[in-house]
């Protein structure tokens, strides 16, 4: 019996058709669920992985608020041309503290998974104020008001507390000092700056991301977030280097 003949026969038999649907759905469900039972073996280990700082979390929230994820993905696929252009392909462990995930599937602009450190803070500020000033063919809208908008930091402790509930290992101390740490990271000459490095590690970037010396702006937070993309851990770089040996 041909495949079409079997299909026509099933359509005429209610019980048979229902059973066929159940079997097909079960197979699809098993294929999707089975990998979860081996997740400890399939997800890479990253002992050097650090959490986002409060300032970077604030920047990530702005990134989501402004819909940046709609035009920029944060997932480099294993295709050769993507690896050549953007760097080592993305690993699952690199997104373990991302809630929600921002992998994306559409690229009106380039992938940003490894954007951190690729350009200077000044470049990012100029790009966000008027994208055409640095990329003449850019279709991205300007975000100049971010440089004129003072960043709200008084509620960042609540953001960290919420993230801890879904598995991000923020400590009580990090949550309690979230607002001060956001200020200190963007103002290196303040009395709060050194405590940020103590809580989040020596590699934490502490500087005036927007080039200003007054209250941190939304621009400073967004640039801080962009500059950490792909730099929370170097496990992907190490894996790529080992694969090339």
Automatic annotation (TrEMBL):
Family annotation (Pfam families): FixO (PF02433)
GO molecular function: electron transfer activity; heme binding; metal ion binding
Keywords: Heme, Iron, Membrane, Metal-binding, Transmembrane, Transmembrane helix
Transmembrane segments: 15-39
Domain Cytochrome c: 54-230
Name by which UniProt lists this protein: Cytochrome-c oxidase, cbb3-type subunit II
Organism this protein belongs to: Limobrevibacterium gyesilva
Gene: ccoO
């Amino acid at each position: 019996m041909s495949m079409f003949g079997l299909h026509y026969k099933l359509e005429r038999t209610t019980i048979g058709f229902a059973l066929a649907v159940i079997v097909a759905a079960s197979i699809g469900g098993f294929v999707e669920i089975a990998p979860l039972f081996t997740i400890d073996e399939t997800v890479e280990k990253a002992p050097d992985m650090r959490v986002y700082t409060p300032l970077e979390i604030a920047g990530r929230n702005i990134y989501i608020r402004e819909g940046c994820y709609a035009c920029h993905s944060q997932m480099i696929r294993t295709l050769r041309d993507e690896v050549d252009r953007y760097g080592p392909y993305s690993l699952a462990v690199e997104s373990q503290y991302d809630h929600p995930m921002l992998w994306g599937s559409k690229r009106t602009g380039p992938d940003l998974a490894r954007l951190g450190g690729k350009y200077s803070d000044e470049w990012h500020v100029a790009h966000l104020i008027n994208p055409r000033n640095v990329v003449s063919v850019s279709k991205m809208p300007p975000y100049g008001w971010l440089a004129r908008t003072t960043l709200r930091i008084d509620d960042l402790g609540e953001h960290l507390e919420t993230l801890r509930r879904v598995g991000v290992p923020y400590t009580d101390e990090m949550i309690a000092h979230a607002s001060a740490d956001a200020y200190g990271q963007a103002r290196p000459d303040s009395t709060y700056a050194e405590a940020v490095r103590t809580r989040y590690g020596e590699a934490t970037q502490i500087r005036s991301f927007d080039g200003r010396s007054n209250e941190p702006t939304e621009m400073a937070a967004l640039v801080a977030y962009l500059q950490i993309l792909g730099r929370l851990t170097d496990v992907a770089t190490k894996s790529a280097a080992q694969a090339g040996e």
